[in-house]
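Project standup — Tuesday

K.O.: blocked on the structure for the chain from last sprint. Re-posting the sequence here as requested.
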Amino acid sequence: MNLRKFCLMMAVAASAASAQTLDRIIAVVADEMILESDLTAQTQFYAMSNRIDPATAGLREQVLQSMISEKLILAKAIEDSVTATEDEVTQQLESVLQQRIAQAGSESRLEELYGMPLSRIRREFREEMKKNLLTQKLQQQRCGVSQIGRMEVEEFYKTYKASLG
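H.V.: unblocked you, prediction finished:
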């Protein structure tokens, strides 16, 4: 083995030894991946939204199961050719951003929490909003929109009163 090949092999080995994991895939659903960083971000957002500790036992698993379910619904929406217009996506994105700004307290606080300016948050989350909109549309198509009135609730209560705690 010549010196050049030996040096190249040593450089590759040193590079592999010093490589660090930046992110990892924790689930794949259809063609969609769920990254550990996505799960961490969703868990932190859920914890912030519900005012609970992100380290709560079982929370990560609960959020992961929810993310997997969303990916399954998204795969079905794509398979069924469900679509969303750019205007619908923009409207959904702005609505969610306004909710998150209200929860964070201000735009600057939201930017601080996400570690990026609002313009980048919009770019980063646009595709997610489109996916969310597709899953919502599929669920509406499949389940329809039903309204339950006071009479139905009272009737249900009377019927199942004994079995309810």
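K.O.: great, moving the ticket to review. The two ends are 79 Å apart (CA to CA). The mean pLDDT is 84.
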